[in-house]
Amino acid sequence: MEENKNKDVIDLRELYKKIKARKRLFLITLPATFVLSCLYIICFPRYYDTDVRLAPEMENPMSGGALGSLAASFGFDLSNMETTDAISPMLYPDLMSDNGFVSKFFNFKVVSADGEINTNYHDYLQKMQKSPWWDHVIDWIKQQLPKKEEDAIAGAGGDGKYNPYILSRKEDGLIHKIQDNVQFSMDKKTGVITIMVRDQDKLICKTVADSVCSLLQQFITDYRTSKARNDLKYYTKLAVDAKHDYERARQLYGSYSDRNMDVVLESYRAKQEDLENDMQLKFNTYTAMQTQLQQAKAKVQERTPAFTLLKGASVPIKPSGPKRMIFVIGMVILAFFGTIGWILKDELKKTV
After folding, report:
1. Residues near 211 by Cβ (< 8 Å), separated by ≥ 6?
2. Chain Cα centroid distance, residue 140
3. What's the burial of 297, exposed, middle or buried (CB within 10 Å: 0-12/13-18/19+)?
4. Measuring CA to CA, how many Å separate 18 from each of 11, 26, 40, 346?
5. DSSP secondary structure, 50-93, as one string
6. 157 pLDDT band (50/70/90 cuts)?
7. Of 96, 99, 101, which Cα lies nearest the Cα of 186?
8. Are 99 and 165 in contact (CB under 8 A)?
9. Is the dihedral of CA 179, 182, 184, 185 positive or negative?
10. CB neighbours of 347 closer than 8 A, spacing ≥ 6?
11. 188, 197, 168: which is closest to 96 by C-alpha?
């Protein structure tokens, strides 16, 4: 029993003596870890973060009644979530999963803070991004490998136009890079959409945030007004056709009346009355179509949502990462305890 108790007791003074006896090992591991950590983390470029907060107008067909009151007691506002739209506002962040939506970012015009970069977002991501040196080595190796046949035909649809759903590996990599750099989130309580953007250049970071905000507003507006715009197009065509029919009927009536001005035969008068009645019917149809057209225009304006910009994108002053000092200090601390574990590995085995 006494031997087992002695095995379970750890003499901290003995452990300290063993660590102190190997203190020269710390003079090797800690400086080496510090230098290697610095060399490693300095290879990663700095990046900046900015965000935009947007509150889109939502259609509230009902107040929620008792359910709305119950939800309000728990801090949820159902009036912000209820809508007759097929796409719930809660699904707007999922747009970043759609290649068709994300591929529109490629056309953003970006200019760097120092003015050396002035191009579109696609070329900027593809050719002007900083990366660790080993990424360049990996890319060079990939370039030496034979290209696959599917990469040659990717990106083009059957009509030869760019198809965001048929991508090469390089284009797919750019899509994933954008999805990592740009993220949407929505507050369930307030309905506020937050757009987070990360980039290596602080001015490009702000530019992309503003451009994404404008693109999202355009998408929401197009979706909310899609039916109203289709109705407007339909009634515009009907109004044009009705006007054409009315003008044609008026010309027929006028020319017939001029040719038979002095004729007193009843058959001619009857035909003149028929032409006049037909002209009046065409005029009534034209007037009705004009009324419908004006209502359709008003409906488009009514369905167009208003947006409140709660927080605009600002040019970040300080980089958000990588946290080089924290990383280096963390690695040094890890090396310190790792060295202690290496020195006391025999003692640790005995206690197991």
Report:
1. 105, 108
2. 31
3. middle
4. 11, 13, 32, 11
5. EEEEEEE----S---HHHHHHHHHTT--GGGT--S-SS-GGGGG
6. low
7. 96
8. yes
9. positive
10. 10, 15, 18
11. 197
Average pLDDT over residues 46-70: 70
Residue with tokens 């006049």: 276
pTM over 0.85, yes/no: no
Q: How confident is the model at residue 86 (pLDDT cuts 50, 70, 90)?
A: low
One DSSP character per residue, 84-137 reads S-SS-GGGGGGGGG-HHHHGGGGG-EEE-TTS--EEEHHHHHHHS----HHHHH
- C-alpha 28/C-alpha 8 separation (Å) is 32
How is residue 312 annotated by DSSP?
-
Specify whether the CB–CB gap between 25 and 339 falls below 8 A. yes
User: Mapping DSSP to helix (H, G, I), strand (E, B) and coil, where does residue 233 land?
Assistant: helix
d(CA 253, CA 247): 10
- Counted residue by residue, the chain has a size of 352
> Looking at the predicted structure, is the pLDDT value of residue 261 above 50?
yes
Q: Which residue has the higher pLDDT, 58 or 6?
A: 58
Distance CA 55, CA 303 (A): 16
Q: Is the dihedral of CA 185, 189, 191, 192 positive or negative?
A: negative
Pairing of strands 182-186, 118-120: unpaired
Q: β-strand 193-199 against 118-120: which pairing, if any?
A: unpaired
Give strand pairing partners of 163. Answer: none
Q: What is the DSSP letter of 252?
A: H
What average pLDDT does range 22-40 have in this prediction? Answer: 91
Strand (E) or helix (H) holding 262: none
